[in-house]
Design a protein that fits this description.
434 Repressor (Amino-terminal Domain); Rossmann fold; elongated
Length: about 325
Amino acid sequence: MASLKRIAADLGVSYTLVSKVLNDRLGTTGVSAKMRAAIINKARELEYTPNRLAVALKAGRRGAVGIFLHHFGSPGSEISEQLLRGLAEGLAQSGYRMWLRFFNTDDEFIAACDEQLKREVDGLIVAGVTHETLLSRLRKIEKTLPVVSVFCGASEKARNALPNVGSDYEEQGYLATRHLLDKGCRAVATFSVVESRHEGYLRAMKERGLEVSASLIVQSPRFTVEDGGTALEELVARNVPFDGIVCHSDAQAVGAINELVRRGYKVPQAVKVVGIDNSPLAEACIVPITSVTSGMAQSGLKAVELLLKKIGGDKVETTVTHSEVVERESTRP
């Protein structure tokens, strides 16, 4: 990365002059229009990028961002970890330090988000499980400290309360179902946990002109391996034909595949299976699972981008990150 010293050396001028020109802080310092243009052009040529942390510190900021995370995701999914990696990468790129706290209850958040913290950070990112009961408090905090949320499956109320970055759950269900239809499946079952993902399933089926039979929809209470196995047992007990299954997590898909294999079904020859999250479980399954990415790492990066814009005084809006299908053996011919 180019530095101010490199630009100064190339042009044969002082480091101080280059700094003043590029930071628009010439004051009474005299410089010709030609030299000023030369410094700016050289900075562009060398792709010089200002140190955002240094700029922040000069503006009287602390150079730190508070991260509050309520862990989410089924065991083995690592989607909380994916989010943290995105947050860490975004802050590292900008030079900001991370002030990290975990919480499960409103009281734990309130105890950690005290006046001392507000004096130590330039903004907050609140992430993970949605806490609608905290929204009014977060709005109050936002009057003096920029706040961005990364609530998963956030309700309309949560999305409107704060600038929120989240995955498009409807898109995830749609992509998983469309992939199975593209592979030739016509009797696609689903183990439904999240309503918006189920809506994506319905949209994909409708686009192909396929009638959705209620017997192919199994309501599942959670995302775990055990829930996937139990849902598969219920589906088989209904004695209806099926050639594909949309699971709402990779853990569910592992449970479903384990039970399919135990019952003598061949995956993917007889039944194709898609999960969601693209977690390590997808690679570790006895039949590696085709999965839709969670978008959590991208959400972390985007949340940092929005928060830094807010810190700089810009207005930002709620946004979503998009997912894609990662194909593996569970749907390959």
